[in-house]
Amino acid sequence: MLITLSPSKGQDFETPSLSKTHSKPGSLKDSELLIKELRKIKQQDIQELMSVSENIARLTADRYKAFKTPFTPKNAKQAIFAFKGDVYSGIDIENYREADLKYAQNHLRILSGLYGCLRPLDLIQPYRLEMKTKLKNARGDNLYQFWGDRITDCLNTELDKQKEPVLVNLASNEYFKSVKPKKLNGRLLNINFKETKDGKTRVVAIFAKRARGMMADYILRNRIENAEDIKQFSEGGYRFNKALSDDKQWTFERPQPPSP
Prior knowledge:
260 residues; alpha/beta; 9 helices; 10 strands; 32% helix; globular
């Protein structure tokens, strides 16, 4: 079984990593091609392209300039420890043992606009580049065209190693659009999280993001290899809802808690 997650705009490169084990991103050469394009963009244009504040545009431009290979533990950090945000708040990474990290390395992939298909322990440097960014490049007009089949090929390489070739998609639509479902060498299982309030059941983004992290954590910590066992997930009060599910898409539902 393989899990896909989205990255996070929030990143922490100040707090020391909890593990010395690390690996190198498999598509770093592609990342360097993107950096070359990104360095050509003026700060003001970055602000417009990414719809961010002047301060964030400045920080983003500075990060592009600072990008440098080779990656080492001194100038980069493992992705699973660097990403911070709603999704990653659901992963209890501070209590992962080396065995947990090793398992995650083989069963979790983070889809990234800059790095493509990341393993949890792949070193990354600070960046901001959402997959939906319409960045013109040598391969097309956007990042989906830039990555082409590369991310799908990466996932297929890993699916071929799994006991059960199932891809559990916990990534957002924006990021999973970089994957070609029809070309996957295995079953694709999309997961939804919904909240029920006043008789209405719907997706609430903030809760869904946290739930994706919680489910990824649940699968990794419990070493789940059989898709059917995912139905036992009950973190945060969620329960598998058969009526709202089918063979390709499973929905987990709960009474909506107070807004955070």
